[in-house]
Specification:
This protein has about 90 residues and is mainly alpha-helical. It has one domain. About 70% of the residues lie in helices and about 0% in strands. It has 4 helices and no strands. Helix 1 runs parallel beside helix 3. The longest helix is centred in the N-terminal third of the chain and has 38 residues.
């Protein structure tokens, strides 16, 4: 029979794995937007990369990825700041 310590340890491991997966999804989504913008416009302003790094909602990054494909300038990310609640530490 597992002890309370064993159960807590297992729970901690599961949470760590889940956080790692989420971070991987976010990193991949950000890189996807940046890759598209770099292919289309070659140089991406640091402000835009910083803006993407502020976003912690994969669905918002998906929207930016789609906008990036049709964008006429890389500022599509700068102009389209996500609503409050999608930035790290913000309340939903």
């Amino acid at each position: 029979m597992p002890t309370i310590a064993d159960l807590l340890r297992e729970e901690g491991i599961q949470q760590g794995v889940q956080q790692g997966v989420q971070q991987g999804i976010l990193k991949s989504a950000r890189e996807s937007v940046i890759d598209i913008l770099e292919l289309r416009f070659e140089v991406i302003p640091e402000l835009i990369v910083n803006r993407l790094n502020e976003i912690y909602d994969p669905s918002i990054l998906k929207i930016f990825r789609r906008k990036s494909v049709k964008a006429t300038s890389p500022e599509v990310v700068e102009v389209s700041r996500p609503p409050r609640g999608f930035l790290k530490g913000a309340m939903i």
